[in-house]
Amino acid sequence: DHEPLAVTVSVGCAAGPLRDVEGLVGVADEALYEAKRTGRDRVVHRLVTDQPSSGTSQSPPSGGSVTSAE
Fold first, then answer.
1. Where would I find the beta strands (DSSP E) of 6-68?
2. What pTM was computed for the model?
């Protein structure tokens, strides 16, 4: 008697040193939007590594992957 409910999810996450929490959250946010751009039901993660400071507060992502849930 109930109609099925279709749900999609997009996830962005980042892992790395907690020296700059705002930068880490920013990388996770970028990963989230990449997951949304590349299709629904995806997880995109980024690994942030210690790199010499280049005048920016956020370390660039050094890698990542896309996982599709179908």
1. 10-15, 42-48, 61-68
2. 0.64
